[in-house]
Design a protein that fits this description.
- This protein has 487 residues and is an alpha/beta fold.
- It folds into 2 domains: 262 residues, Alkaline Phosphatase, subunit A (3-Layer(aba) Sandwich), CATH 3.40.720.10; 213 residues, 2,3-Bisphosphoglycerate-independent phosphoglycerate mutase, substrate-binding domain.
- It contains 17 helices and 16 strands.
- The protein has a 7-stranded mixed sheet with strand order 2-16-13-1-12-10-11, with helices on both faces. The protein has a 7-stranded mixed sheet with strand order 6-5-4-3-7-8-9, with helices on both faces. The protein has a two-stranded antiparallel ribbon with strand order 14-15.
- A hairpin with a 4-residue loop joins β14 and β15.
- α7 runs antiparallel to α10 and α14 packs parallel to α16.
- The protein is globular, with a radius of gyration of 23 Å.
- The N and C termini lie close together (12 Å).
């Protein structure tokens, strides 16, 4: 089998849209990608809403996209599970929460609710944050401090004032709740081990800085005057009463783990808390209490390959490494015995528009070396460019990112397909780069989309034989690949 390798390449954030306006995917000079989709078997796959276990109309994201591809089935996602808990008011009587609240009430400590202030449903949802506040109120918690993380990435770049107003109207109903700090997600939700960014947020949460004499809305307005958008607003303390102290309790509302782990670890490593509650488990090594268990897939793609004694090669750069490992394997942290994993460091830079190729060339070189010297049966390769550069809203930079990918993919095609008679599948986990402007907000579009994503099957014998493949969603990829490997 190793002489005829199979490559599954996930172009993160590479969606499909009939409209070419503000569409970096359509307008980029990517002759190979356009040619392959036109002249090889292909399909358009649903990658959002109920097709990946989310609510209809909710954009897809990297976590659920990789999870659905790897699981080969649609799994209920934390967003939908939490929505049900909110709608049924079950948070008010949840045993885990009520026991946690009682420890605070008995010791006269404060509750801190941290979360991304957004309704995109990618990492968190504002309705969940409000529901946690109401749950604590219902259980007579005396002091509640809310620490908001501003989005500006999965929602328009300057939309924080709308969400703050929405939140404040809810909080105004209670005398013992206030917003204690604000943080741009660039700092509080780093996932690339940039400790300096996390430290900025931790310094605020622990009161190592002086509070500003202003409210959250004023912090945002002043940042806009400096041309700083929501994502990059510097962490700011609003009241010294709201710093996290020993014996306090924390609820982190984010239900997606990858961008919550570092801040959580920093908090747990620094202060002795009464409890730290999270919607889902962020990591087995973090001493948190989770409210819900993730549904488990019966037989993931890699489990099936492992049972067939096929060797596996998994590679991504830091930004998406958790997605091709932890999420792709349905929450499994450890690699399989027959699996090689390679983490390529992401460039340490604030703005990927300055380096739109990111680490794509390094990934390609490593895969080519493996194919030429010690080929494996199955390769899982993630290229982060379309998503990470697409999040900038910079149209020209996103086109350059796609053009870089086109060049790198051609190298892999020549080696794996042309020379080794292998099969190369190209797909995506969700859309992004195909919609680069939001006509409604009249701002650059920095978020994911609900667009379908391409799927292509490249093989020597299939050249110039285009037809629509019998796949409708990301869930169909695993079974299709297994079938073709065994044929």
């Amino acid at each position: 089998m190793k002489n005829n390798p199979t490559l599954l390449i996930i172009l993160d954030g590479y969606g499909y849209s009939e409209s070419t306006e503000h569409n970096a995917v359509a307008q980029a000079d990517t002759p190979h990608l356009h040619n392959w989709f036109k002249n090889y078997p292909h399909a358009l796959l649903q990658a959002s809403g109920s097709a990946v276990g989310l609510v209809d109309g909710v954009m897809g994201n990297s976590e659920v996209g990789h999870m659905t591809i790897g699981a080969g089935e649609i799994l209920p996602q934390p967003l939908t599970i939490l929505n049900t808990m909110v709608q049924t008011h079950s948070l008010d009587t949840d045993q885990t929460l009520t026991e946690a609240y009682n420890t605070l009430n008995n010791a006269d400590n404060s509750l801190h609710i941290i979360g991304l202030l957004s309704d995109a449903g990618v990492h968190a949802h504002i309705d969940h944050m409000v529901a946690f506040v109401k749950s604590a109120i219902a259980n007579r918690v005396k002091r509640i401090y809310v620490h908001v993380i501003l989005d500006g990435r999965d929602v328009p770049p300057q939309s924080a004032l709308l969400y703050l107003d929405r939140l404040q109207k809810e909080l105004d109903n209670f005398k013992n709740v206030q917003i204690a700090s604000v943080h741009g997600r660039f700092y509080a939700m780093d996932r690339d081990n940039n400790s300096d960014r996390i430290e900025e947020s931790l310094s605020v949460l622990f009161g190592h800085v002086d509070p500003e004499d202003k409210d959250a809305q004023a912090v945002v307005e002043d940042s806009y005057l400096e041309r700083v958008t929501d994502e990059f607003i510097v962490p700011t303390l609003l009241t010294s009463d709201g710093v996290i102290r020993p014996g306090d309790g924390v609820i982190f509302c984010n239900f997606r783990a990858d961008r919550a782990r570092q801040l959580t670890k920093g908090l747990l490593d620094t202060v002795d808390l009464s409890f730290f509650v999270t919607p889902v488990q962020y990591h087995p090594d973090l001493a948190t209490i989770s409210l819900i268990e993730r549904p488990v897939a019966d037989n993931t793609l890699l489990e099936q390959l492992t049972k067939d004694d096929l060797s596996i090669f998994t590679i991504a750069e830091t930004e998406k490494y958790a997605h091709v490992t932890y999420f792709f394997n349905n929450g499994r942290e450890d690699k399989y015995d027959n699996e090689v994993r390679v983490l390529v460091p992401s460039i340490k830079i604030q703005d990927y528009t300055k380096e739109p190729c990111m680490s794509a060339k390094e990934i390609t070189e490593i895969v080519l070396d493996s194919l030429e010297t010690n080929p494996k049966d199955f390769y899982i390769i993630n290229f982060a460019n379309a998503d990470m550069v697409g999040h900038s809203g910079n149209f020209d930079a996103t086109k350059k990112a796609l053009e870089c990918l086109d060049s790198e993919l051609e190298k892999l095609f020549e080696q794996a397909v042309t020379k080794m008679d292998g099969t190369m599948y190209i797909t995506s986990d969700h859309g992004n780069a195909e919609v680069m402007y939001d006509n409604e907000s009249r701002q650059p579009a920095t978020s994911h989309t609900t667009s379908p994503v391409p799927f292509m099957m490249l093989k020597k014998t299939l050249a110039n034989k285009p037809h629509t493949l019998p796949l409708s969603g990301l869930k169909d990829i695993a079974s299709f690949i297994i079938k073709n490997i065994k044929d």
